[in-house]
Amino acid sequence: MLIDTFGRVATDLRVSLTDRCNLRCTYCMPEEGLQWLAKPDLLTDDEIVRLITIAVRDLGIDEVRFTGGEPLLRPGLTGIVERVAALDPRPQMSLTTNGIGLQRTAAALRDAGLDRVNVSLDTLRPEVFQAMTRRKRHEDVLRGLEAARDAGLTPVKVNTVLMPGLNDDEAPDLLAWAIAHDYELRFIEQMPLDAQHGWKRDGMITAGDILTSLRTRFTLTPEGQEERGSAPAERWIVDGGPHRVGVIASVTRPFCRACDRTRLTADGQVRTCLFATEETDLRTALRSDAPDEEIARIWQTAMWGKKAGSGLDDPSFLQPERPMSAIGG
Ligand SMILES: C[S@@+](CC[C@H](N)C(=O)[O-])C[C@H]1O[C@@H](n2cnc3c(N)ncnc32)[C@H](O)[C@@H]1O
């Protein structure tokens, strides 16, 4: 079991498969100049599957989410999914992706055992997409989303970050579009995890702003607290149902008390939180032929260092050295 000193038990593992991405979202990565992880430092497919096996078989992980960087850029993704799906017990498996290339791979990923996808999309306007991601790939994302839904990787969730002056007027349009396409929309507050360290609290669009904007067009009724559980998104029933909209208020209403996550970076470091400033190395043990029990023990010990909260509210808050793309969002 992966229990921390506050009694929280991690059952949800986020695995970053690469720090590379084919977009350059302004709130995440600089246009150029970001140093990539060195190839020899990246875990191999076999090493990733071994760590996930230990996590699922010995440490109580029952949900695995692949992320990055952009996980679809990892050539071995389908094979990794297939091998994880064969584990006993079989964990729930999902993918957080920008959707580019999903049009070609959604069916194969489902056949390999993937259960669900979250696709990130911030705007319905191609020119705003280009301004926010510095790439002309809007249409590819829309096609990827449709392919995921058609392949049955459902519920397809759409993750949206609103940025002032760029797409902050789009919340109601995005919700109407998501409902029409049977996607579940979730807004994520912008967090201080960009490589450029450009985040400013007084510049960010808050959950409160998002709800005010949505309520200009929709009636929102809060879903019961018990339905949230450890899920980061607070959800609202839209116009009486059945559709829902979520808001992940990581900054203004953090959900740390119910956190059930542990993270693995693409170079084999355990992180107990997105905002952790310390990591625990598993790669060295992996590569020095440590037995599974030893690796499980290192992972368990790492969890004892998990802090009560993200520390965002503390004036002495320090942004982690690694940007979101290298942690695995
Ligand atoms: C880092 S990406 C990695 C997975 C994949 N490339 C994708 O686009 O979903 C995961 C999620 O983190 C979000 N994200 C990145 N930087 C963020 C930030 N500074 N604040 C809030 N969310 C952020 C992205 O919008 C995306 O939804």
Automatic annotation (TrEMBL):
Its EC number is 4.1.99.22. Pathway: Cofactor biosynthesis; molybdopterin biosynthesis. [4Fe-4S] cluster 1 binds at C21, C25, C28. Coiled coil: none annotated. [4Fe-4S] cluster 2 binds at C256, C259, C273. The keyword Plastid does not apply. Keywords: 4Fe-4S, GTP-binding, Iron, Iron-sulfur, Lyase, Metal-binding, Molybdenum cofactor biosynthesis, Nucleotide-binding, S-adenosyl-L-methionine. One of its GO terms (biological process) is Mo-molybdopterin cofactor biosynthetic process. GTP binds at R14, R65, T96, K157, R261, T262, R263. Binds 2 [4Fe-4S] clusters. Binds 1 [4Fe-4S] cluster coordinated with 3 cysteines and an exchangeable S-adenosyl-L-methionine and 1 [4Fe-4S] cluster coordinated with 3 cysteines and the GTP-derived substrate. It is an enzyme of class 4 (lyase). GO terms for molecular function: 4 iron, 4 sulfur cluster binding; cyclic pyranopterin monophosphate synthase activity; GTP 3',8'-cyclase activity; GTP binding; metal ion binding; S-adenosyl-L-methionine binding. S-adenosyl-L-methionine binds at Y27, G69, S120, M191. CDD domains: Radical_SAM, Twitch_MoaA. Pfam families: Mob_synth_C (PF06463), Radical_SAM (PF04055). Its cofactor is [4Fe-4S] cluster. Residues 309-329 are annotated as: Disordered. PANTHER family: MOLYBDENUM COFACTOR BIOSYNTHESIS PROTEIN 1, MOLYBDOPTERIN COFACTOR SYNTHESIS PROTEIN A. Monomer and homodimer. This is GTP 3',8-cyclase. The gene is moaA1.
